[in-house]
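Entry for the shared binder. Reason: the reviewer on the internal report wants the predicted structure included alongside the sequence.
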Amino acid sequence: MSDFEREDKISPAFLLNHLLSYIKEEDQIDSVAYVARMKDGTITSGWTDMQYTEVIGLLEVGKLQVVKEMWNEWTPR
């Protein structure tokens, strides 16, 4: 999410519209995996046509990108 200012709240609708613009207008997206938390707390996930190992790899890379951003924002006490 490094394209966005971290102070701005990123809603699910905004995020999905951003992704859809890459799919519809620029045709740059090859595959997608997602994890979502529903309002009742249920966690759901889904992915496009990929091998299971590709899905796991995509999710792991996403996790590493989140950890990298977290460390970049961290300030020692």
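Summary line for the report: Helices lie at 12-24, 52-73.
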